[in-house]
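Friendly challenge for the regulars: who can give me the structure tokens for this chain first? No prize, just bragging rights.
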Amino acid sequence: MTTTVSYIKEWQKALQNEIMHLKKFGSNKCIVTNGRLLANDGSFTYYFDTTGSIRIPVGSSIRIEWGGMKQSGRVLSSEGKGVILTLDQSFGELISVATLFHDPWELLEQLIQRLDEMKKNKQKRLRVKKLMDPSMPAKHPVEKSKSTVHELVLRSKYNPVTFVWGPPGTGKTYTLARTAANKYFQEKRVLILSHSNQAVDVLISEISAFITKKQRYHEGDVLRYGFHTGEQLANLEAVTTSQLLERQDPHLAEDKEKLIEERRNLKQDLAHSFSKRDTNQLLEVESKIARVLEKIRQKEIQFVKDAYIVGTTLAKAASDPAIYEKNFDVVILDEASMAYVPQAAFAASLGKRVIICGDFKQLPPIASSRDALVNMWLKEDIFHRAGVADWVNDGKLHPHLFLLKEQRRMHPDISAFTNQYIYHSLVGDHESVTKSRDHIAQKTPFPNRSSVLVDTSFTGAHCMTERTSHSRMNLWQVLLSFQLIHESYLSGIRSIGFVTPYRAQANLMELILDDIYEKERATADIIAATVHRFQGSERDVMIFDTVDSDPQTRAGMLLTGKDSERLINVAITRTKGKFIHVSNQAFIRKYVYQGKTLRQLVEHHEKNQQTVRTKEIGTWVRNQHPRLQWMHALKVDKVFSDLQAARTSIVISIPVQTNLSEQWLEKLRDRDQRVNLTVISERDLPELRANQYLNERVAFPFVVIDKQIIWLGHPLEGSSAVRPPFIAVRLQSEKVSDYLVGQFVLKE
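First reply, four minutes later:
Bragging rights claimed.
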């Protein structure tokens, strides 16, 4: 049997191997824009917009480069499409565009240090042993349990380790918050931990509101320690260290503000005239600020000591002695399925009792190295590594696993699949969920339907790999998905998500939304992202685009590999009222084995008569967007009109099997001679008299006119993987045109 010390050594080796991998392959780099100075309180806090979600652990060291200037700092928050950083020095009030570099190994090094301390502490090792081998008998009195919350309170009173399995929408926050409040009423000290600031904020907010409602709140008893996003906590009693400081020692807070203002003025003076006196004065002010900040730090440490409930991130806990040197009665680790196993063990070492809460049917933690120890300890969650998940696969619940089994998020037509195939029929629907979600289901597209498969079988061979990233993309399916967003928006829905396994497809949808849907997005919450980026979010309507189709000859590992069940589960369970699955059923039946989750999902749609076929497109496309139009491909007047109106360029792709009718040949040959014609094909077509000829394999025909109009579905004759009704689509987008043509390395 593996000893606790052996586990710790393996974890340290895994973390070291991940650090070596990260150091070898360099810093992560991304562009940040619209930097605004938020606060100047000893350090400089900036908010930046990001092009997509960036997941940098809170507390990580970063570097910012802007022009010739470089600044180091730390991450305070990286939720959604924005990042908040604290920098050592000022970059000014506004920063248009900068580059953010992240060296992600520092937090792992701090965790290695905490594991070192664990090796030397018998009490901590014993706590970790019970976490990793929860074979001790369950001692809580089952017969006394009066409710879900009461059962968790009892379990965490009598047992050293309690695993809480919280599938989506089953009231995890509600249950954990009331359990924490109950411990507080018994004067127990509770530590709330999670990997994200947002999750900690949500739990602390719920706990504080509940205790206040019970009229048992005392200032300082509930503390949100470290950086917080602010939104969740804005309307509560004083729960943050800065709020408590303003209440309890306003003079210290004022001193800090005055000194910072004095420093700002001195720096402005120095910018105009440099003098020894000003320099000395500035150094003196810096010294005073350091002393005030140290007093504030001591106050914060005292706040932690005095509080009964403390909430912070795993990163903050592992790096701050005010947390990791303290002992708690109960530790609650939320979103544990997204934490590394060594992080879960560190959390368990801090308390006499630990509650590990998460959903091991959702996506596992992310690590970069392919090392065997990294795969074992950093790419799988504690539920699996402690053996708790194995019981479920055998049709049983582990004695220390507490399942929250009633979901209130999804319309029952959506949850029917996940309840049966993912959660082994252990989870059911709360009686209120149909009524609360029907108003979304009633909207278009597909009124009065909550779960729909939009089948793209035999609409063409549009799946390709992006040239730079080798990630898969499918222009036909992304345009179909955009049409579904458009129909949903016009029906009044303002909470819409587009989710896909492939980053290239998510980026392509972002490109389309940015280019032709900017005005609508200003009035709605419309997001396009990979499934990995969507975990933890929810939307009224979710569109799940699986991308894979002809001419690929196998389904991607994201949809069929080890974690595919978890990925598909996350994609479905983000939905409240309408789940639309855009997928090529014929391809999936051909290339995905029976028993795989994606195949089961397609067959579930078919069995429950939830499939919308290509021939029905005319019934649900009610609203043609001015820049995206669907039509019958046999009607060629519009495409020929565009060809005739071309002013600068025509790019046409002609797959080997595609034929050009005499009419098409005539239109291309008779073009204005100032119009540059580029042909992409493996076939020799001298009769077209092209200006450029690119000998490259292409699976589907398309036409790009004047670098701004794209036609898919033309030229039609002889196209592969196409059956009636023949559909063509016209998109007017300079950005997408440039992107599509760029996949073929054209040099014009």
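The mean pLDDT is 91. The radius of gyration is 29 Å. Your move, everyone else.
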